[in-house]
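To: structure subgroup
Subject: Chain for Friday's discussion

All,

I'm putting the inputs and outputs inline so they're searchable in the archive.
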Amino acid sequence: MNYQVVEKEAFKLTGYKRRVTTKNKENFKVIPEFWETLHKEGKVDQLFNQSQDGDVIGAAVNFDSEENFDYLIAVRAEGLKNMDDEVITVTIPAGKWAIFSGVGEMPAAIQETWKQIYHEWLPTTNYEHAGTAELEVYPAECNTEDGIRYEVWIPIVDDKK
């Protein structure tokens, strides 16, 4: 798998939230539907237009012990102009990230990347999941002739025990 390990300072994400569960792989259905809805409503374009770095980010945050989490479609920004009251802001903590790059047809390509990270990469490295947010990063120029260009960011700590 193509990846790099980097340290990042804390940053804020502002965007739209949906509560999701991993039970019965529901997240593999609900998250693509959420993206589709926000695309149809023009909200993803609005987010791209206000992004501080040109990226739109899918962020899994606020995990609980019941396999539930909040999924945000957001941008790096502390506030957005001309957006509805549904937007929220969360802080992504500073830390070390394994960043995986890919390109392909959505949602199959990114779902396969997630499976490989959890079933192949994490079990064979000296890293473990740090327990904070997981990110899907889509740059402004993410559309290519080979599909959508993306990154998956996994928060990591060294030395499995």
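Points worth raising on Friday:
The first helix runs from residue 27 to 40.
The chain has a mean pLDDT of 90.

D.
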